[in-house]
Amino acid sequence: MASLKKKRRIRMLAFGGVALAASAAIAGFAFNDSIVFFFPPTELVAKAEAGETGPDRRVRLGGMVAEGSVSKVDGGASVTFEVTDGETTMPVTFAGVLPDLFREGQGVVAEGYYRNATFEAETILAKHDENYMPREIADALKENGTWKPEDGVVE
Question: How far apart are CA 92 and CA 85, in angstroms?
Fold first, then answer.
């Protein structure tokens, strides 16, 4: 009798472990399509050239808006600008309303697709105050030797 209970308990634990592993695998595959990675321009170009990200993969591009690069096209319906990390400058196109804090020389994160050597942004996020800079951008600027502490505080 005790042996039968023990076998039943072992089978239930094994079934529970298999069910837990299967549900974790299903959740992992489901979330894989919604994960968006953040890259500075230099890293995004390198990953695209290596085939690690494709034109259908949604990514986030972060860096500084290059001075003198912002221009409105199509009567102001869309805008083009360049994002730089101090090493690589990448052209960005965006159709929509820019955030109020968006301007040249400031930090920006654009979410969209990297296609044909141009970043096609669907969402633009500007920094939220005068001292904020995403850690990834600050690290890229430090690596390039263009980091100035007065440019922003890493949070």
Answer: 14
∠144-84-154 over CA atoms, to 5°?
A: 65
Q: What is the pTM of this model?
A: 0.64
Q: Measure the CA–CA gap between 100 and 88, rounded to whole angstroms.
A: 26
One digit per residue, the tens of pLDDT, for the chain of length 155 reads: 678 888 999 999 999 999 999 999 888 887 766 666 778 999 999 988 988 888 888 889 999 999 999 998 877 789 999 999 889 999 999 998 888 888 888 889 999 999 999 999 999 988 655 555 667 777 777 887 776 655 454 44
Interatomic CA distance for residues 63 and 140, integer angstroms: 9
Pairing of strands 59-65, 89-95: unpaired
* Number of Cβ within a 10 Å radius of residue 72: 12
Handedness of CA 95, 117, 68, 71 (dihedral sign): negative
